[in-house]
Amino acid sequence: MRFALTFTLCLVAAASGCAINRERASVSPKVDLAGLRTYHVVRFPPDERGIEQVIAAALRKRGLEATAGNEGDAPPGVQVIVTYQDKWRWDMTMYMLELRIYFREPQTGRLLAMGSSYHTSVSRITPEEMASEVLTNIFKGGAK
Q1: How far apart are CA 80 and CA 103, in angstroms?
Q2: Coil, strand, or helix at residue 60?
Q3: pLDDT one-digit tens code per residue, 20-67
Q4: I want to staple 68 with a disulfide (CB 3.0 to 4.6 A). Which of 21, 56, 132, 137 is the partner?
Q5: Domain 19-141 architecture
Q6: CB within 8 A of 131, min separation 6: which ones?
Q7: CA dihedral for 72, 78, 79, 84, sign (positive or negative)
């Protein structure tokens, strides 16, 4: 009986996992994101999942103009270059562990804003939800 109880408790502890959610965003002082309407999302070279397209679509859902591709593909007059880093992990299936998004000034590369989202396996969300979450936090931080 004692063995069965101990075994059951160990199984429950192992199956429960550890849910960690972390969200952050910051906008450089004196940057008014409301005035920035055109974005170009640069593909992160190791990314083979098309996350640049996911981020561009999330920006378009906000009513902004957004293109995606390589850095040299940015249309003339674009106001923000968007870069990102995605991290993936395996836990029965692949899932996005972390997404970091950076807004940069096209001419100088100066950081305008950044945000990140981190979800472990138990609290995983889709890449689309992750991109939306990061952008919501960035734009919330840049509201003037």
Answers
A1: 6
A2: helix
A3: 667 778 899 989 999 999 999 999 988 888 999 999 999 999 999 999
A4: 56
A5: 2-Layer Sandwich (3.30)
A6: 51, 54, 55, 57, 58, 99, 101
A7: negative
